Structures are given as structure tokens and as C-alpha cells.
Amino acid sequence: MANGSACNADDDGCTMNDACLDGACMPGAAPDCTSETDQCNLGICDSLGADNYECVKDPAPFESESCSDENVCTRDDVCTGGVCTGEQPDCSDGVDCTNDSCNPETGDCQNVANHAFCEDGESCTNDTCDTVEGCLRSVQEDWADCSEAAPGACFSGVCEALGENDRCTDAVVVSVDENVTGSLDGFHGFMSVPENCGDNTEVGGADAFYSLAVSEPGTYRIELSAGANEDLGLALLASCGETDTCLDYADRANAGETERLEAELEDDIVLQVLLLHRTGKDAATFSLLVTRVNDTDGDTDDEGDIDLDGDDDFDKDGDTDDEGDVDPEGDDDFDEDGDEGDIDLGGDPDGVIDGDEDGEVDDVIDGDEDGDADLMNNGDEDWNANGDEDRIDDNGNGSHSGSGCGCRTTKPTGALAMLLLSLLGVFLRRKAF
Asked: Rounded to 5 degrees, what are φ and ψ at 427?
């Protein structure tokens, strides 16, 4: 064949362009496989038949030779199986919840906390990883919301179900004359009695809350009846969550008895039912009743009084005693003249009807100051009717006879009659009231 004619000299795909030369078939040149050459490999041709090949890496020439993988975290890099590798630093810190590695930018070890390693699945715990201490666990504060119960709150790291009105902010609305029954079963101690309610250091049990909408200002009575052997307290609060909102507090009754409060109300209030002297959750039962006090005088006592003047007593005179007096002039006695309990009708501080100050129950009508029960009609200081100072006469000349003989004659029956009439009038007036 002519020189240069194509031929197959060796059935090797890695010889290219085999050609005839002077009657012989000569192998051609090998292909260029330098594209596969790197610091740990030599690029060579691999025959795939007479006419095909591929370039491959041959690590053998560079095995164990020094190299650089351009990773600052590796040391003593060498070629191993065509790959440049070095020794990784030991970055382990001995803490189970950290991700330990070398920073490829600085070559330094880094230990990053992974909080997921510490999570216990409880919503009332705070689970964190500390790069020195490892997993740390703390509990959520009491009354923090939790997801295991609805509604629920955390207590000592455990999620517990809440009563409907366990929180003050979840108070149940009550109406006047509505008898509400309840139980503290499963309830918790949301808040202590505010300090301005007084010394209530023994209060530490469960509590429940109710709200009263005051539609009409007035006097209201709140009664809390405890179940058998239960000791309950009752607080009236202006609002929730403050320390100085207590309007009143009752803890006077014995266990199993009824606590009562009366209050003049203009605005809405919160009623706090507390289990006394015990802590934790308890199953105390109770009933709660709010009524409007329908009195006749507008006062704030609870004695069933019927006075009409608005004071705290049972009288009609506007004074502050509770003696049931019936005098109509407004003083502190039982008379009509402002003195201290006499029965006179003259407005003076004695028991007479003549306006004098001698204190004698005389029957005079003349304004003198003697106590002789005279019956004169002229206002002088004697017993006559003619203006002189002798005994009573009916003829104006100092004697008792019509002829002025001077004979003395008194009329005790008339004086006694007037005294009796006076006493009878007072008695009838007192009966009327």
C-alpha cells in the first residue's frame, strides 16, 4: 500500500492515525490526556478497542507524594489513591450537645451548641445546650401557657389543666340574684389577697374568680357559703393584678359557714373565692350569691332597720343613736324641746310645762320659778289670779272668797288634772312612732 495509507498497526485505540510506511503499518501517536493530570494523578490513555480510548487518572506515579488540599484545617497532606488528604485536627470538646469541627477559614476548632440535642418535648421546660456544662434544663415560670392542656399552665415544670376561672383575667360573670355553685377541684392559687385587705398570711390555697357588672349603683350583699368543713375567704377587688385594689375582705365565719360582705358599689368588681389555710389544689365546694340590699333609708347597715332619714339607727330624728327614740325634733332624747328626756311641752330642759328651770313637775302656767303647783292665770309669782302675790282668790283682792275676805283655798284637783293630761299626751305621741 502506498505510504500514508491508513491501517491498524496494533489494535490499540490509544495509537492514533496508524499509517503505511514503506510497506509496513506504523502505529500513530498517543492522544493527549494531560487534562486528567493533577498533583496526585497522571493523565493516561485507556484503550477501548482498536479505534476507541478514554483519558483516565493514574494515581500510581504520585502515591504518598506531598501535596496540598488547600484546607487550612488539615495537616501533613499527602497523595493517597489519587486524592490529596491531610490529618484532621481533634476538635472534640467532650460535650454531647455541641457540633465539633474545624473552621475551614481559620483552621481553628469550633464547638457550636446544638439545643435540639437537649430538647425533652415538654413545653414547661427550657432545654438548652451550654458549650461547657452540656444540656441545661430549667422550668417555665408558674402560670406560663403550655400546649399539653387547653387551657393549661405550667406549675413546677409540669403542664396542668386549668379551671374555667382559675385566672383572675378569666373571671366568670355572675348576675344579681343568681346563685352560683362551684368547686375548687383542680384549681390553683393564682394570686394572694392584696396587702391592703389586711393581714392574711394564712391564705395560700386555690382560688376562683367571678366578675359582677354593676348596672345600678347601690348597696350589694355578697354571700359565700362553704361546703362542709371547708374554710373559705371572700375578697372584693376593683381589678386584677394590682396590689392595692382590695375593696373588702371577709374571713370571719367558721369552716362550713357563710361569709358575708356588704358594699356600696358604683363600678364593676371582681369576686375572689379563696381556700384558706391550705396550699395546692383542693376540691372545696361553695355557692355564691349577690343580692341588692332593699332598705328604706339608704344606709349601709345590715340590721334590717326601718328608719327613714338615712342614718345608721332605728329612729326618725336624724341622730346617731340606736335607741328607737320617737321624738320628732331631731335631738338625742325622747322629748320635743331639745332637753335630755323630759316630758314637758314648754321647750325647757326640765319636767315642767311652764318654761322654768327648776326641774319640779309643777303645774303652773304663769312662768314663775316656784315649785308650789300654783294654778294662777296671771303670770305673777303668787297663787292668785289678780296679779298680786298672795294665795289664790277668785275676786282679784288677795282672798279666796268673792268678797275678798282673805280666806285661802287651793285647787289641787286642777293641777293634778293638767299633769295627767300632759303625761297622757307624751305617751300617745310615743306610741304613734
From this structure: -60, -45
Contact 294, 262 (CB under 8 A): no
Parallel, antiparallel or unpaired: strands 203-212 and 172-174: parallel
Q: Which of 187, 176, 168, 280 is nearest to 219 (CA)?
A: 176
Instruction: Specify the residue for cell string 282679784.
Output: 396
Contacts of residue 430, Cβ cutoff 8 Å, sequence gap at least 6: 326, 334
The whole-angstrom separation of Cα 273 and Cα 114 is 46
Radius of gyration of the chain (CA): 57
Per the structure block, which three cell numbers stand in for 329?
325634733
Amino acid identity of residue 302, one-letter, is: D
Q: What is the pLDDT of residues 105-123, one digit of tens each?
A: 899 999 999 999 999 989 9
- Distance separating alpha carbons of residues 412 and 56, to the nearest angstrom: 160
The closest of 203, 343, 210, 208 to 278, measured between CA atoms, is 203
3-state secondary structure 294-311: CCCCCCCCCCCCCCCCCC
Q: Which of 186, 201, 202, 184 is nearest to 272 (CA)?
A: 184
Mapped onto helix, strand or coil, the DSSP state of residue 276 is strand
Q: Any idea how long the chain is?
A: 433
- The whole-angstrom separation of Cα 392 and Cα 366 is 13
> Which of 284, 292, 291, 293 has the alpha carbon at shortest distance from 181?
284
Residue 281: its pLDDT value, please? 60
